[in-house]
């Protein structure tokens, strides 16, 4: 990079006619601008290759906030992260609003290693995710020809558009091409910022600022693309085998208030090992659940007898496996 900048500086210092009218300040500004652009490009590329420890998820759509659509993508992503040992730190649902998308994208990209967005990349006027995230990182939108070619190959005209022609300008064509207008960083190779992870899908994963992955809101597509990214993610995990987080469950007949003191001391004990303690009341059942979640499987397994005694319960493989048919004598703890 410094070699390129030195060459540029020497070039600008030559007494060429087209630079004769420029002030020294203008020349310095040009060098500074190119240096900043190069540094930003390198930073974004580095961000895409760094280890993944944390994740964030942005669900974008007025229809989710208005109750018209039920979001299932965040739950799927949460399970995906858990299965790989990625610490999902935040899930946000925001409106189809440019300012909100810009703010959330910048903040999430800064705070977490791996960020996905869901929704807002369709052909209609309210699908503004691409343009908003491009604005967030001062990037242009460009028609991505490879995406257009894949779209032509794999998409089929809707039955309401029997005369649609890719070679004839029309409102429908303009709308379709909106889905191929992608944020583009000129300093990053195309293959690093536009991913195709499923051979039979034209939908790209647009990668912005090195760690934001823009995905569709349609659950079937979202899930397929998330799974398709797994081979790219595994080498960047603490455990490249992707064994994921480990959860140990204990069933206890005690109310949460009865085990609160013990769980407080247990949490303090296991926190240095990266293990979290959770307690979950099961209303209408006579047994509650206590969990340990972490990566250190050997350490967590070694605590089985201690925790079972502490909560006067037993370790179980899944919630409710030791429930009985007779739930009439349920002790309801009002502070649970």
TrEMBL record:
PANTHER family for the chain? MOLYBDOPTERIN BINDING DOMAIN PROTEIN (AFU_ORTHOLOGUE AFUA_5G11210)
List the Gene Ontology MF annotations in alphabetical order: FAD diphosphatase activity
* Annotated organism of origin: Exophiala viscosa
| Pfam families listed in its UniProt record | MoCF_biosynth (PF00994)
Its name, as the record gives it, is: MoaB/Mog domain-containing protein
Tell me, what is an example of a GO biological process annotation in this record?
A: flavin-containing compound metabolic process
User: Where does the MoaB/Mog domain start and stop, copy by copy?
Assistant: 56-236
Region annotation Disordered: where it falls in the sequence? 310-336
Top-level taxon in the UniProt lineage:
Eukaryota
Q: What are the transmembrane regions?
A: none
Q: Which InterPro entries match?
A: MoaB/Mog-like_dom_sf (IPR036425), MoaB/Mog_dom (IPR001453)
């Amino acid at each position: 990079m410094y070699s390129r900048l030195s060459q540029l500086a020497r070039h600008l210092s030559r007494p060429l006619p087209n630079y004769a009218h420029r002030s020294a300040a203008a020349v310095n500004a040009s060098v500074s601008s190119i240096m900043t652009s190069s540094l930003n490009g390198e930073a974004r590329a580095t961000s895409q290759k760094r280890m993944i420890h944390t994740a964030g998820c942005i669900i974008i759509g007025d229809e989710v906030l208005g109750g018209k659509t039920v979001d299932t993508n965040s739950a799927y992503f949460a399970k995906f992260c858990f299965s790989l040992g990625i610490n999902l730190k935040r899930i946000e649902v925001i409106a189809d609003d440019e300012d909100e998308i810009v703010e959330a994208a910048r903040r999430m990209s800064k705070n977490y290693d791996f960020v996905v967005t869901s929704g807002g990349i369709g052909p209609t006027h309210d699908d503004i995710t691409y343009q908003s995230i491009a604005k967030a990182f001062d990037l242009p939108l460009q028609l991505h020809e490879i995406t257009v070619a894949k779209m032509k190959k794999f998409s089929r005209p809707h039955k309401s558009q029997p005369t649609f022609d890719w070679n004839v300008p029309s409102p429908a064509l303009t709308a379709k091409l909106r889905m191929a207008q992608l944020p583009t960083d000129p300093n990053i190779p195309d293959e690093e910022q536009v991913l195709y992870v499923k051979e039979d899908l034209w939908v790209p994963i647009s990668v912005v600022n090195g760690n934001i992955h823009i995905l569709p809101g349609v659950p079937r597509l979202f899930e397929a693309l998330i799974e398709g990214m797994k081979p790219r993610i595994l080498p960047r995990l603490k455990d490249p085998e992707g064994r994921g987080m480990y959860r140990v469950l204990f069933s206890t007949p005690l109310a949460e208030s009865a085990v609160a003191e013990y769980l407080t001391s247990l949490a303090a004990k296991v926190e240095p090992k990266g293990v979290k303690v959770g307690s979950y009341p099961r209303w209408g059942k006579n047994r509650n659940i206590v969990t340990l979640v972490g990566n250190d499987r050997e350490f967590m397994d070694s605590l089985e007898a201690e925790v079972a005694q502490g909560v006067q319960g037993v370790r179980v493989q899944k919630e409710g496996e030791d429930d009985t048919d007779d739930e009439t004598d349920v002790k309801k703890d009002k502070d649970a």
